[in-house]
Design brief:
Layout: H1 15-38, H2 45-52, H3 56-62, H4 74-86, H5 94-105, H6 114-124, H7 127-151, H8 159-170, H9 181-194
Helix pairs in contact: 1-2, 4-5, 4-7, 5-9, 7-8
Length: about 200
């Protein structure tokens, strides 16, 4: 059997990988708990390491900067975002693929869940986290625009691809505070798919 055959399912993670993932999750969980309890600036790295029962050296192997502790799934989120475009089913448009991704992975952030509310309150009240989130958002937007351009055989700096990436990442905010978040998010992506087309009826 050829273990590198791409048609085969990926091998399950080994013991070493599982242990590393568990350690990373324990650190992130301890950090978020302490940040929510006492505030981001009031909690030190050593306290987080002690709470997770690891050394500070181990902590920094997983999280090179303090801000990254709050956004521990950053790399995974970007990978899923790009996969939504690159691995979409044949015949599914890019806006539709991004809509389905948002419905699966981003709607929770606008669902009214108290955990997400507390998380975003923490981020919005902490300048260092707001800046980190903005830089992360810009990086995701750039990577997504390039993936869209590649799929469409367009230049990497195509402005239309950049605009689609920007608005696709912003669309979930349209659902914030809405009674029917799924419907609001779908409507935002419908606009990306089909354009405005004088939806308001226009002024006569």
């Amino acid at each position: 059997m050829n273990d590198t055959d791409p048609s085969l399912p990926p091998a399950p993670p080994g013991r070493r990988e599982r242990k590393k993932a568990a350690t990373r999750q324990a650190i992130a969980d301890a950090a978020l708990r302490l940040f929510l309890e006492r505030g981001y600036d009031a909690v030190g790295i050593r306290e987080i390491a002690d709470a997770a029962d690891v050394s500070t050296t181990t902590l920094f192997k997983h999280f090179p900067v303090k801000e990254a502790l709050v956004f521990d799934e950053d790399a995974d989120q970007e990978a899923r975002l790009l996969a939504a475009v690159r691995e979409r089913p044949r015949g599914l448009s890019i806006p539709a693929a991004l809509r389905e991704h948002a419905l699966r992975h981003r709607l929770a952030a606008t669902s009214g869940d108290a955990r997400f509310t507390d998380f975003f309150e923490l981020v919005n009240s902490t300048p260092a986290l707001r800046d980190y989130l903005q830089n992360m958002w810009l990086r995701h937007s750039t990577a997504l625009a390039r993936a869209i351009a590649d799929e469409c055989d367009l230049p990497a700096d195509d402005p239309g691809c950049a605009a689609l990436a920007h608005f696709a990442l912003e669309a979930p905010r349209a659902a914030h505070g809405q009674d029917d978040a799924r419907r609001a998010l779908t409507r935002a992506f419908d606009l990306l798919e089909h354009g405005w087309s004088d939806q308001s009826g226009g002024r006569r």
